[in-house]
Sequence to fold (487 residues):
Amino acid sequence: MAQLIYYLQFPFVRYAIIVGVAVALCSSLLGVTLVLKRFSFIGDGLSHVAFGAIAIASVLNISNNMLLVLPITIISAILLLRTGQNTKIKGDAAIAMISVGALAFGYLIMNIFSASSNLSGDVCTTLFGSTSILTLKPLDVWLSVGLSVVVIALFILFYNKIFAVTFDENFMKATGSRAQAYNLLIAVIIAVIIVLAMNLVGSLLISALVIFPALSAMRLFRSFKSVTIFSAVFSVVCALLGIVISILAGTPVGSTIVAADVVAFGICSLIGLILKRQ
Amino acid sequence: MKKSTCLVFLAGSTFLLLLSGCTKGGQKLNTNTAPGVNEVLEARIAEEEQKAADNSESETSEEEFTPTLPEYEPRQSGLNENAPEPEEADSEVVLSTTEGIDVDLTILSSTMVYSQVYDMISRPEDYEGKIIRMQGTVGSYQDNLTGNKYYGCIIRDATQCCAQGIEFVLADGQNYPADEEEITLTGEFGTYMEDGFLYCTLKEAKLEE
Fold:
């Protein structure tokens, strides 16, 4: 405990905790919708798109790569969510195609054009988060917190609409609501969350932040509201636990957070099983 | 210039950048801030031609060479005028429980050490003059063109894919350890300019047994 208090003196540790909690909260809120809409894997696909965009940004020497990464990821999210159901290439195949394509081109661009002295380190950092979350600048923190507040505000504001579009899109259309517009809103929010979460766990582990809290909550609760609230609490606790363990034990931050998610999921499944038998 | 010479020079420059990793204005380490290869090579060629013309110095062998550091010039001298002034709170960096040491990296976990070193080379102005204690492996690089030899204390992150280091110059009377040797040293954090780049170093460093 004394060591933890000592580590909290370091500004970058405080920044990591603030951003970690904000990102975990956002990702869990939308996670429930994504899991129920059978889009669990979209986080993975979009994160690989973001990886490709980061590669382009680093080659172009753009100091704040979020200016390029965010728009590209948002466009990809819109394309995946809107066209996935109406084209010859269906949702899962489209996600897989964009995912591996972006990953391959991203690495190719980094290899051919990047003059970085530490290419393997750059790739490793982007894929696994490495210690990115512990190397944030105050501006990154403000940007992450600001975007997180916007995401949470939008979720609360459009909670009923998101609920409707999640469970019965056709009914929503029949009642005259603009289901496509809300799907678009969800796509934009997902893209923002993915870009934010890349700092926390890296592009390969982002899906864990989206699916584990939702799936764990579904083991214990049945209503949309209670599942959403529990997954938010679950995600924040696991992210905090992961960050604290990683700085105390010297383990990689991203994989420690995901490991905490997996263990907590196992506990929730066990509790769910016991409750079901009673 | 021969292709092999170019390659050796490029490898050397890359190692030097990796060794210190300081960038002007506190930019991120992984961001490419290096000038064009041709510009660097041309500058080096011109420098060497000038030296050859003067014919002033003979070649120095690796064994005999005593590492020298370009004259230390603090930020106020105008070398880094564009760098933002450090905030008052940040300028009082004391992150150590050991007396006489401002930042003790040896008591931190590997994740923390990596992040702290990253912070130091991203914002060197906040750590100028601070006494740093660190532990890591020795890495060295000799610039064949200038004859200068540089030593660094290298640390790795928890994923083992990224490494960062801080250059050090030992106080007089101490022998430099061999590459890959595990060391613990204490020195004063400082910066200097060389070939248009800002480098970080631990001056007057002392090795611990």
